[in-house]
Amino acid sequence: MTGGLPMAAPAQRPPLDRVGALRWLRVNLFSGPLNTLLTLVTFGAIALVVPAVLRWAVVDAVWRSADPAVCRAAAGACWAVVAEKHRLMLFGLYPHAEHWRPVAATVLYVAAVALTCWPGSWRRIVLVPLWTVTVAVFLVLMLGGALGLSLVETREWGGLPLTVVVFTATVMMALPLGIILALGRRSRLPLIRTAAIGLIEIVRGVPLVTVLFCAAVVFPLFLPPGWDVDKLVRVLVAMGIFYGCYFAEVIRGGLQAIPKGQHEAAASLGLSYWQSTRKIVLPQALRVVIPGLMNHVISVFKNSTLVIVVGLFDMLYATTAAIADPLWIAFYTEGYLFVGAIYFLGCWAMSRYSQFIERRLARGRSY
């Protein structure tokens, strides 16, 4: 006793079997006989497979050689095919002498994305000028025809820059369209609600390949003689509408998840429909559906390869053309692994950033 108050018991460390690595191992890997057996079998398989993969991919691999015979004589992977064909894989049909332009455009795009992902830049005064300048410079570099740059038409675009264009343009069109369609589907006006439902159900009822085919082949048949719309523009609009309808259903689910009390609170403050939607309802709905939206954003990135069906030279199509060389065709595995790694890194980065956004916006959430 000190001054009539009981002394606090000395702090003790918790048992090791209840916290830390030991508890995690016991709960997740060795929680029972079957789980223990599966863990041991998995570790055994990893011990057998990983060394062989590392030996093939790293130790015995050929990293750089202009002679395919060296690769055929090697016991490991032939990454030399990437070194020899990387220009065609990454830039497609873009003129060889002008490859510095898509490189600069892609680096600028990646830098803009990195700055946008930083929470400190989440201000309109930063993002609007940033993306206005980025898009303008990107198009000038890729298209040319200004500042002394030679004109390169969109039919010559290909590889990674084309994938970037398809992905970014599709998301930028699909997200606002999805918001409009989701609000339209929940509208009390029959005409607007019917039109939104009709567009969403019709577009979601057909495959993306069909939509792309109609945009590239069927749509020009309805244009007046002498009129033409660039194929890439038609494909981008088609993909924007297609994914806009999918985004709309995800966002509609978020709107339905908002408690009725939020709408009543907005009405009690005298806010109009558009004010309450813009300031109260829609921000909360978008926060709720971040996982679903990111799922479709990743789908856009992967399904950008489907532009191959309308003759656009995306990164996957360019890789297929590059490894079709008879001298290097035997090493198609390495070529596809290289492109697959790029797609994996992009999808993994978006997934991790989505989790970061979820954790950041979940602070102070009461429901």
How would you characterize the overall build of this protein?
Helix content is 68%, strand content 1%. It is mostly helical. It has two domains: 79-94 and 152-361, MetI-like fold (Orthogonal Bundle), CATH 1.10.3720.10; 95-151. The radius of gyration is 27 Å and the shape is globular.
What sequence of helices (H) and strands (E) makes up the elements?
Answer: HHHHHHHHHHHHHEHH
CATH topology of the largest domain: MetI-like fold
Helix content: 55-70%
> Which CATH class of the largest domain is shown?
Mainly Alpha
Give me a quick take on this structure.
The protein contains 15 helices and one strand. It is mainly alpha-helical and 367 residues long.
Defining key terms:
globular; about 375 residues; MetI-like fold; mainly alpha; 15 helices; 2 domains; single chain
